[in-house]
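Problem 3 from the worked examples.
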Amino acid sequence: MEIKVLKTTVASKNETGTQCFEYIEGEVYDIYNDLAEVFLAEGWGEKAIDDLENQAIDNLENKQFKTKKVKNAE
């Protein structure tokens, strides 16, 4: 799951817990699901995909679609 880190945290890099990794605030990481759920529950991160979807929706809502009148060439 892609997580945008809200608080720099040292945590496991893999499901076996054999490696530690520093997740840096403001960065987006593809984190395995169990750890991603911990990041969400503890407030250390948020789903990155939701942010991108919300930004796309906001951008669409803020744009006005204008049509051009085209003269027919005769």
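Problem 4, a separate protein:
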Amino acid sequence: MGQYRNKRKDKFARGSFVFLSLFMISFGLAHMFAGETHYSNWWGGLVFAPFTVLVGFFLLYLVIFKWERINNL
């Protein structure tokens, strides 16, 4: 029973990180296609949209290729 629960938690965590990374990529690309290189975050600071896309792709890479190594930390 415990191992089944761990698999469910693992799938939920992995799915959440995939969703977060795809959201970051799409949010950054939407601003770039609108012609804006910067946008304001929640606290009013400027965020460079291409950096958001790169971070999103890096997170997606980690989830797809390095998940087992990260999950065992």
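Solution to problem 4. The chain is about 75% helix and 10% strand. The radius of gyration is 15 Å.
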